[in-house]
Amino acid sequence: MENQGMQRRPHVVLVPAPLQGHLSPMLELGTLLHSKGFSIIIAHTIFNSPDPCNHPEFSFLPIPDNLGDQTAAAANLMTLIITMNNNCEAPLTEILAEFMKRNDQHDQICCIIYDMIMYVSGAVADKLQLPCMILRTSAASAAAAYEHLPRLNAEGYFPLQDSKLQDLVPGLHPLRLKDFATADMGNIKDIIEISAITNNTRNASALIWNTVDHLEHTALALVQQAYPVKFFPIGPIHKMAPPSSTSLLQADSNCMAWLDKQAPHSVIYVSIGSIAIMEEKELAEIAWGLANSSQPFLWVVRPGSVRGSEWIELLPEGFKETVGERGCIVKWTPQRKVLAHVAVGGFWSHCGWNSALESISEGVPMICRPCFADQNINARYLSEFWKVGLHMDGQLDRVKIATTIKRLIMDKEGLEIRQNANAMKEKTKLSVAKGGSSYSSLNELAKLILSNQLPK
Ligand code: UDX
Q1: What is the pTM of this model?
Q2: CA dist., res. 68 & res. 75, Å (int)
Q3: Which helix (DSSP H) or strand (DSSP E) does residue 451 occupy?
Q4: Hey, whose CA ends up nearest to atom 34 of ligand 1?
Q5: Distance between CA atoms of 263 and 402, rounded to whole angstroms?
């Protein structure tokens, strides 16, 4: 088609991973790049696909992933990642090649940006001779820590021995061996293998990080030693981009009206993110812990997040009557709005990286209760290094839960943590404002993509 005087926008193809904590930062990166003059094409799996209605400014290219919702939901994370990549390589190549054939040489794709776990996109970019970059949606501290897995394995640390779990890992302050717990991810050899695949920067010209330099300056410098490509820390991406709807699940906004009725900084907000699940016994301990804390609470229980249940039918008898209006339980919240609400006094989180960044951005102190993988590392950094949370470690029981909530919301200890969280919030605000580190990094990233000097 002829260009009728309209300036053409260079096309950037984004390949998100179809998991909530990965999808949101990629879509928001799209919004940011669109505001810098790029045309955005989202090449996405059919499984957990984003809703095009929420992003009329983007084009969407579905990848026939051949996964099927049932297969995808049944797979464990590691299997899902591998199957997804195997299934997507050919169709992704095909749809992009088709796009390139349709468009003339002045209207071509200038770069593919893919989520690190959609690693096969690197091979696709190779085949089509297109430049590419990788978006990392987890913390640089976690990346730096996992770089040590092969060494720890070679030194005989795995399988982890119970008697050594609390030992500090030499050279990796503040991490303990326990924070490398891998049982829930598979065997150590598989983990090292998949890490090597997802960490392979191949032909990528840059790594884009959803993190902020003031938090992770040292970790970024450490990881940079292993990957000699350009780094662009542009996070928290959700604070850089204007608000948009990126949620796969429908949020229940009634909880906002409930929050409006609570006293400032009184509510403990509880969520284990989009993937983690729990046992019925844990549900009961959490329920009674929240009840016994005497604080108001907003609790997200995702349907199916309790093994063997539909939703909250397994809550212990008498619990609802005991807490009455003091508790609000929902299936999914508008989390960023919740964290920005003045009533929220603390966030009990599984410490997924998005939740961590969202809490830090609003100055909300945390109770860190990781469930698996990088969440363990994030929890340790949040509590021991940035000191914006209390780590609720070990066996989950109602007494410990109630005590930890009180420590965070009522005690002097909690006040100090809140002050640290607020200081982080202010620094983060500066980073995303004009002239700040993330703001400048995004401008450099856009300039680099536009320069047409990316290696193919
Ligand atoms: C996954 C991995 O588990 C984690 O280890 C990795 O760091 C990121 O991906 P996930 O469970 O998706 O984490 O958690 P997180 O990264 O915190 O992302 C969850 C997202 O869902 C957040 O953006 C949060 O705002 C949103 N959310 C969560 C809601 O909007 N409403 C809710 O009720 C709960």
Answers
A1: 0.96
A2: 11
A3: none
A4: 273
A5: 19
Q: pLDDT tens digits, residue range 368-406?
A: 999 999 999 999 999 999 999 999 999 999 999 999 999
Residue 238, ligand 1, Cβ within 6 A: no
Reported as a single tens digit per residue, the pLDDT across 24-36 is: 999 999 999 999 9
All domains of the chain in start order, with CATH: 11-246+432-450 (3.40.50.2000), 255-430 (3.40.50.2000)
For the stretch 49-75, pLDDT in tens is: 999 999 999 999 999 999 887 677 777
Which residues have C-beta within 8 Å of that of residue 453, sequence separation ≥ 6? none
108 HSE (CA, 13 A, CB side): 14
CA triplet 78, 79, 83: central angle to 5 degrees? 125
* Joined tokens for residue 233: 């820390």
Residue in 329, 355, 380 to alter for ligand 1 test, most ligand atoms within 8 A of Cβ? 355
> Which of the four pLDDT bands, split at 50, 70 and 90, describes residue 190?
confident
Contact between residue 28 and residue 237 where contact means Cβ atoms under 8 Å apart = yes
d(CA 354, ligand 1 centre) in Å: 6
> Closest ligand 1 atom, CA of 374?
5
225 Ramachandran zone, left/alpha/beta (phi>0; psi -120 to 50): alpha
Confirm if 210 and 234 have CB atoms less than 8 A apart: yes
